[in-house]
Design brief:
Structural class: alpha/beta
Distance between the termini: 59 Å
Number of helices: 8
CATH architecture of the largest domain: 2-Layer Sandwich
CATH superfamily of the largest domain: Ribonuclease H-like superfamily/Ribonuclease H
CATH class of the largest domain: Alpha Beta
Strand content: 15-25%
Largest sheet: 7 strands, mixed
Bound molecules: adenosine monophosphate, magnesium ion
Number of domains: 2
């Protein structure tokens, strides 16, 4: 029997057909309506990680060319339980850029971050120390606790953080050396490569939350995608790693 709670009536079947190609929805046709029913695969498999740490940097930018060095201006992390996929804790800090201290109108329009949100905020070194404290307080540095960062694309941890840390001679904690690119996990699960975060939402039956290119809102959407991909039976694996010359070992 089809429960009302899982039925959505829609006069348009175009989107539904697209999603159905992905095996995400089951369709039943009645005159002028499409009955959309969530597929039964909401079984989350046992994962290889205790926690997923969803991270999304926002950084100084301009059009047509980004400033050099690019600097992180927003650093949010969501701690997501590896069994329930619920958010358990949040780190969120706006960061004051050093070299290009004035945000461009383009950057403010893109990210929603205005000058007053970064002025007087800690610089990147202090912010990374606060991340470390948050990781410690949240039990994420304890031996035997397995966690991994989750980003949309490889830019955050392969490009942005290493380039800024190299520029300012800042050691990079080793926990930033591996991550899951949610686009790759989505692709492994659905067979479709997404160009960005937004195109992953609709096929998974998700609605966009908040403001696109706000770091914290992007994290919330990525966390929703993570959970939806897990509900399709996906078991997440590390998709990216990097080795830095200047790292901070947890044993130091
Ligand atoms: P996102 O996580 O997609 O919000 O983007 C992260 C950062 O990438 C932004 O804070 C910008 O620094 C840069 N960025 C994203 N989209 C653009 C764009 N269209 N033009 C220039 N920089 C961008
Ligand atoms: Mg991003
Ligand atoms: Mg973002």
């Amino acid at each position: 029997m089809i429960s009302h709670s899982i039925l959505k009536l829609s006069k348009s079947c175009a989107r539904t057909a697209k999603a159905a190609r992905l095996g995400l929805l089951v369709e039943l046709f009645i005159p002028n309506y499409t009955v959309r029913m969530a597929s039964s695969s909401s079984e989350i498999k046992r994962q290889n990680f205790d926690y997923f740490l969803v991270l999304d940097f926002e950084a100084t930018c301009d059009n047509p060319k980004n400033p050099f060095p690019q600097e992180i201006i927003e650093l949010p992390i969501l701690k997501v339980n590896g069994q329930t996929f619920e958010v358990e804790s949040q780190f969120h800090q706006y960061v004051q850029p050093r070299v290009h201290a004035e945000l461009t109108p383009f950057c403010t329009e893109l990210t929603g971050i205005i000058q007053e949100m970064v002025d007087g905020q800690p610089h990147i070194e202090e912010t990374l120390q606060s991340v470390d404290k948050w990781m410690l307080e949240n039990g994420l540095l304890e031996p035997g606790v397995k966690s991994v960062f989750v980003t949309c694309g490889d830019w955050d941890l392969r490009r942005m953080l290493p380039s800024q840390c190299n520029h300012f001679n800042i050691p990079i904690p080793t926990y930033f050396n591996k991550w899951i690119n949610i686009k790759r996990a989505f692709s492994d699960s659905t067979g479709m490569w997404p160009s960005g975060m937004i195109p992953m939402l609709e096929p998974l039956g998700l609605r966009h939350q908040g403001r696109h290119h706000s770091g914290i809102d992007d994290c919330k959407n990525i966390a929703n995608i993570l959970k939806a991909v897990a509900e399709r039976g996906h078991v997440f694996q590390v998709t990216g790693t990097s080795v830095h010359l200047m790292t901070v070992s947890l044993d130091d």
